[in-house]
Specification:
This protein is of the alpha+beta class and 147 residues long. The chain is built from four helices and six strands. It has a single domain, classed as Alpha-D-Glucose-1,6-Bisphosphate, Chain A, domain 4, CATH 3.30.530. It has helices at residues 26-34, 36-42, 122-127, 137-145, and strands at residues 16-22, 55-58, 65-73, 77-85, 91-102, 108-115. The protein has a six-stranded antiparallel sheet with strand order 1-6-5-4-3-2. Helix 1 (26-34) packs across helix 2 (36-42). The longest helix is centred in the first third of the chain and has 9 residues, at 26-34.
Length: 147
């Protein structure tokens, strides 16, 4: 049995959902998601613009990801179409949604939903840069820079 035999290709794929609480307000988190130089510092280079219909390419080390902005509600929600190649070179289309919710203490609850795919891609690896396991210095630096 190979690892591919363990992937259920007949059922709808599951979403990856990550919730994390950040000390920074939604305005600052929004900038880290939508300004190219800030996004490059924590995810990958790309000419993102928070305008519905804007197409751009992210350039992570694992290979290009073609994106289109599907929804841009400032300081609330950013939804992107996401097209990348899996390990076998097959195109995988999915969507990535960032939902920002203000917290009572002035911070942000950030929910990341990666949905509509069968194989995990590079964003799954990048999630480790967001989810605090130990002090997340890189994300803290990006959020400080977004001030």
């Amino acid at each position: 049995m190979s690892p591919d035999d363990l992937v259920d290709t007949e059922s709808p794929p599951e979403a990856i959902i990550v919730d994390c609480d950040l000390d920074e307000p939604p305005e600052k988190v929004w900038r880290a998601l939508t300004q190219p130089e800030l996004m490059a510092a924590w995810l990958a280079e790309g000419d993102i613009k928070p305008q519905v219909g804007h197409r751009f390419e992210l350039k992570p080390e694992t290979g290009p990801v073609e994106c289109e902005v599907l929804k841009a509600d400032p300081r609330r929600e950013l939804r992107l179409s996401w097209r990348e190649r899996d390990e076998a070179g097959e195109l995988v289309d999915s969507e990535v949604t960032f939902v920002l919710t203000p917290t009572i203490d002035g911070g942000t609850r950030l929910r990341l939903v990666h949905d509509g795919f069968a194989h995990a891609g590079f964003l799954v690896m990048a999630i480790g840069r967001i989810v605090p396991r130990k002090p997340v210095r890189r994300l803290e630096w990006v959020l400080a820079w977004a001030a």
